Amino acid sequence: MRTLSARRLSAVAVTVATMTGAVALAPAASAQTPEPTPSTSITPLSAAGNGGVTILKKDPGGDVLAGATFTLLDSTGKQAARGTTDTEGQLTFQDLAPGVYRLKEVSSGSPLHEVVDDQDVIVTPGADTPLTIIDPFKPASVLLKAKDDKTGKLLAGSTVNIGRGDKIILTLTTGSDGTASGKLPINARTGSDFWVKQVKAPEGYEIYKPSKAFKAKPGDPVTVTVTNAKSATTPPPAESPTDKPTDKPSDGPTADKPGQEEDTSTPSASGTPTSDETSSTAAPAPAGSLAHTGADAAPWLIGGAGVLIAAGGGALFVARRRGTDNSTDDGSTAG
User: Fold this and answer.
1) pLDDT over 80 at 282, yes or no
2) Higher pLDDT, 65 or 323
3) Do residues 92 and 54 lie in contact, with contact meaning Cβ atoms separated by under 8 Å?
4) From the CB of residue 214, how many other CB atoms can be counted at a distance below 10 Å?
5) pTM for this structure?
6) Closest CA relative to residue 275, chosen from 286, 285, 261
7) Cβ neighbourhood burial of 306 (10 Å; 0-12, 13-18, 19+)
8) H/E segment holding residue 95
9) Which domains does the chain have, with CATH numbers?
10) In terms of Cα–Cα distance, which of 196, 203, 195 is closest to 158?
């Protein structure tokens, strides 16, 4: 009897245990249950509130960009996801815990495009966060040169404005080496049109008034050269001093500076001025006057004096001769 009772009790215990396990695994279906029992699904409880990020990659022209690589970092800086855009320019990160992430573009996947700056992304439970990211075209590198139009010498102090349409984008001024450089934003695959205009010329040069047009493509280097002519009012370079005098001093007297003879002449003992003193006191010829063209009168005066002396001597001789003849005539008559 005792053995039979034990066996019956064991069977009852097993039946109760089996029924209890089935209840525990089944979801609560009775409306009379005051509180629902916790779910025991094989999907983790945290996955039910996860979210995602969907990226659409384009360029400024609206074309989608394939091959762009992104990484997603969590709040601790650890990589939470990584991927590359497909042929449609799309990339999706799924099953992300809610929170703030840091999105970093590793590569644009194109030689014509730059990567964008890092940005924060908020992941919300049960939803995908859409992002449209536009990669800018790589800027063009511009090199400005200012030159002398005759010698080709590079000039400092040349200031130009570079713009597109009616907007000034960049202002450059050449340095001591005659050059300046900068970056120009490009908005199309085929390049962008620009203009350059000089607003200040180098010192001593005329300003170049016309504007020049040029085109630049993404990532390409461009050289812009502005030539200037020397200003008409530029003074000639100063001559270096030399040891040799340029003008030979004159030894003779001039109208502004009397000669030495005037200072050293002395009067004669008789009180009559000497010829030297007379000549020294004569009025000098005015400076800049023309030379005399008449002959000197001194030879004529000397010749005239000689004729007068000769005439006087002849007259005296004739007078004496007549006196002698008269005396002879008187003697002969008296006899």
Assistant:
1) no
2) 65
3) yes
4) 17
5) 0.51
6) 261
7) exposed
8) strand 90-96
9) 46-134 (2.60.40.10), 140-228 (2.60.40.10)
10) 203
